[in-house]
Structure formats: C-alpha cells, structure tokens
Amino acid sequence: MRILHTSDWHLGRTFHRESLLAGQAAFVDHLVETVRAERVDVVAVAGDVYDRALPPVDAVALLDEALARLRSAGARVVLISGNHDSALRLRFGSALFEPAGVHVRTSPDLSWEPVLVDGVAFYGIPYLEPELVRAPWELPDRSHTAAITYAMSRIRADAARHRASVVLAHCFVTGGQASDSERDISVGGVAHVPLAAFDGADYVALGHLHGRQRMSETVRYSGSPLAYSFSEAGHVKGSWLVTLGSSAEFVPAPVPRPVARLRGDLEDLLSSPKYEDFEDHWLQITLTDAVRPKSAMDRLRARFPHTLALSFDPAGGAPVARPARVSGRPEAEVALDFVREVRGEPAAPEEEDLLRQAIEASRAKETMA
Questions:
Q1: 209 near 176, Cβ under 8 Å?
Q2: How far apart are CA 327 and CA 303, in angstroms?
Q3: How far apart are CA 195 and CA 174, in angstroms?
Q4: CA nearest 121: which of 110, 112, 109, 129?
Q5: Gap between the Cα atoms of 280 and 148, Å rounded
Q6: What is the 3-state secondary structure (H, E, C) of the chain?
Q7: Which of 29, 40, 278, 281 gives the lowest tally of CB atoms within 10 Å of its CB?
Q8: What is the pTM of this model?
C-alpha cells in the first residue's frame, strides 16, 4: 500500500501580511500529480488543515477543491483536525464524505474506530486537548501523554484484528525540533508525548511540527508544505511517500518563493554580488551598521523587493545611555532622546523642527477639543 503523508497545510495563513494562497494551491497541484504518478492509495493529512478556527472563504474553497481532486486522482483521503482547526467546522458534512472516500476524524471518541482500506486500518487521533478528555476518559492526569496513551491503548486493542495499522496524530513528540511558526500547545497540559506511546503501529503520520523529521523508521513528521516563519529558511518542504512495511521516501514540494535571513551592513548588502541569489527571496534582514541608516527599508527594497522584516543589531556599537527619567521633561526632549536611542545619532535640524511642529499641532488640537 502506498501512503502520502502530509500535514500542517494552514490554509488561509499569511506570511508577514503576504498571501500564501497561490503557493498553497501550487502545493495541492503537486499532491495531485504525486498521487497520480506514484499510484498513491491513501493521502493522510495529519492536522492543521486550516490556519484558524474560522478560515477565510478562499481557504475553504481550496480545501474543497483539494479533496475532490485527490479523490478523482484515485486516492482515499484520511484527515484529522489539529490545534489550529475547529473540529466542529472541519467535520461538517463528514458523514456524507465518508462513502465517497474522504474520511474526516475530528472527534476524540472516534480515534479507535478505523477507516479500512484493503485490510489496513487507519486510525485518526485529532488534536487532543487534555482538559476536555480527562474526565470522560478517566485519565490519571491532565497531559498530552495521558491522552495519547489512552487513545493508543484502544487503538492497539482494535488493530490486532487487522492486517496492518496506520495512525494519524497531531501532537509534539519528545525530541522533535520546533520552529517559530507553531502555536504552543502546552496550555491545558504537559505538551510532550514520548515516542514509545506509538509503539505497535506499522506507521505513524504526525502533524504539528513544521519541519520534516524522522522520529523513528515508522514515526515521522512531514512538516508544513511551505515555510511559515523565517526560522524555517533551511527546511526542505514536502511529504513522505510511504510504502507500508517497506520504505519511506521524501517527496520535495515546489517552492513558490524561497525565504532567507541576511545579516550585514547596508552598503555591503546593496552592492555585493554575493547576495544576487537572494533578490527574489522573501527576506528577514538584520543591519549591523554602527549608526542606523536612514530610509533603510526603502533602499533595501530597491534591490530586494520582497524584504518583509528588518531589524538592527549594531556591530561593536556602544550602547546609548537611556535617560534616567521621562516624567516632567518636555515632550520634545523625550521624543528627541528616543530618536537618538533608536537611530544611534541625533535628529537632523530639519527633523527636529518637524518633530516640534507635530507636538505643537497636537497640543493645539487637544486645546480645541
């Protein structure tokens, strides 16, 4: 059996206010092509299908299209909810989808009820909020470990009746490497789940962490299809193509626009040929100039039009002494001290005049009010 393991689509997400919908649609095209080319039997989507509980309408339309196309390409789809999804909204229509070969699992109590495909049992463990399942499942404590352990005990009992078992789960397995774009799931219980909790399954398709990771030969994270933070600049995105009981091969996804981090002084960044390959990237740039350059973002975007984030970390610059107090000092002095602190040099005379005029205009407006 051939399984394509993917997760963390986060449909509807933006990247520093830039829409990712076109890139996500290109990933759907890639999945459909892979299903056809590799004769995939089941596409396993391990949670965080949407980026938020109430997704935008274009994200909902893209999911609708993706499920229909994957099914038309010949694959069954097994899909679970993640911590970003609304379980109730995601499972809308699931009873109607089931006979069509699209199996949505968002209810904790369905975790051990398998989807059977050619004798292989697929079990979908959605994101489990420990506080919500602790009482009904009579768990010993409020933790993700307790919740997953209980669900897996029920799954193992049922899986003994079947030829093989595949588990989808959305959680943080101990030893996994996180990135900046994942929402913390520690609220509501201890977040980490030991790898041993998944013992007994022939394959475990994990979601939540955005980098591809092999926790063991049979327990893996596929990661997200696109980079969702600059901390993922070094990631290779894609899906695991699993031949059950035999092998797992990573299938890289298309990269609509690479992301990267650059660091250096402004003039070098603007003139050095070593940065030519980054001119089409989404960039996070840290400037190391001793004095903060004026109009830095505008100048950077002349060469790197997709610069999205800019910060300053002066190299070897002495820290600027902060004023001891603010209260009681004239507003203009406080504002000019702020300019000196963030820029590393005083405001120019014309800038000082503009600042004082703005303060006076603000006072006049308050007086009139």
A1: yes
A2: 43
A3: 7
A4: 112
A5: 43
A6: CEEEEECCCCECCEECCEECHHHHHHHHHHHHHHHHHHCCCEEEEECCCECCCCCCHHHHHHHHHHHHHHHHCCCEEEEECCCCCCHHHHCCCHHHHHHHCEEEECCHHHCCCCEEECCEEEEEECCCCHHHHHHHHCCCCCEHHHHHHHHHHHHHHHHCCCCEEEEEEECEECCCCCCCCCCCCCCCCECEECHHHHCCCCEEEEECCCCCEECCCCEEECCCCCCCCHHHCCCCCEEEEEECCCEEEEEECCCCCCEEEEEECHHHHHHCHHHHHHCCCEEEEEECCCCCCCCHHHHHHHHCCCEEEEEECCCCCCCCCCCCCCCCCCHHHHHHHHHHHHHCCCCCHHHHHHHHHHHHHHHHHHHHC
A7: 29
A8: 0.86
Q: Rg of the chain over CA atoms, in angstroms?
A: 26
b/e code 315-338 from CB counts within 10 Å (16+ = b) = eeeeeeeeeeeeeeeeeeeebbbe
**CB contact at 8 A, 77 and 45:** yes
> How many residues in the chain?
369
Both tokens of residue 298? 């505008």
pLDDT tens digit string along 13-56?
999 999 999 999 999 999 999 999 999 999 999 999 999 999 99
Mean pLDDT (whole number) for 120-147: 96
Over the stretch 149-178, which tens digit does the pLDDT of each residue have?
999 999 999 999 999 999 999 999 999 988
Structure tokens at 197: 């909790």
Distance between CA atoms of residues 255 and 257, nearest Å: 5
- Contact assessment for residue 101 and residue 126, using Cβ atoms and an 8 Å cutoff: no
25 by Cβ neighbours in 10 Å (0-12 / 13-18 / 19+) ranks as: middle
State whether the Cα torsion 212-47-52-173 is positive or negative: negative
Would you state the structure tokens that stand for residue 111, as one six-digit string? 């975790």
Query: Which positions ≥6 away from 172 have C-beta within 8 Å?
Result: 144, 178, 185, 191, 192, 193, 208, 209
